[in-house]
Amino acid sequence: xxxxxxxxxxxxTAVIPDQHFELSADDARDVYFTDTRMLDATQLAHxxxxxxxxxxxxxxxxxxxxxxxxxxxxxxxxxxxLIEQIRPHLAAGHVVGLDIAPGVLxxxxxxxxxxxxxxxxxxxxxxxxxxxxxxxxxxxMAVYMAHYVPDLQRCFAEVRRVLRPGGRFLLATDHPxxxxxxxxxxxSALREMNAPRHLFRATPKARISLxxxxxxxxxxxxxxERRTWQDQLQFADPEPFLAFYxxxxxxxxxxxxxxxxxxxxxxxxxxxxxxxxxxVIRTSDYFALTKFTGTFVCW
Length: 299
Fold this sequence. Notes:
The chain is built from eleven helices and seven strands.
């Protein structure tokens, strides 16, 4: 399924800034993921409004190539949403979820309570896996979280250490131009508001994206294979989109109400974005978000 068009390519060239936001592990733990609200909103939108019959967990399952008995480590497991989807394929296996944020880790534990597959939950950073012995896991995955990790090279070295021979590491991330339609309305609204220039930055995932991920992974793995995946979210009402937009912290992770800018700034920003999205829906029946994403499969 190919959603890419020359129009989207031109839009991305015009819209996506060269510089990207940088997120710290401290912000991930203490600000963005103190609870599951942001994750819940984005996961719901990715699932409910997708048009690709192949969901994210289907894409991951193809890459994981499970037999059902593997030991799986999920780095940055969040609220356990993906583990819940994958766990039936590991009925005779073992799952370990690791996350730096205790709030979402508790939600993951609650989500998987009572399943027969053994599940353990560990609070920690993905660049320090010292609690695990060498060759502990058959599969390790890091899904849309690597941009939070303080030391990526140390993380990959640790993953290599805890993987068993023949094991696989999956790192899922976006192409820098993914969901360009959201950035187009976002930056347009910011320009109308004469917003501070430091807010005009690209997604933090550009730190390790489908464009630059292979060069960061190849020092640690003999084989690094990039598998792309596309989807398009289609919103026929602006409100579900706005919930998704808030879940991305209004596209600007360096700012939030009460920190850099007053709450009134974000109220106006959201109103302007709502009107832009509603205008697109009136003329096109829906507002599209085109996802250019994928996974590096490493062994």
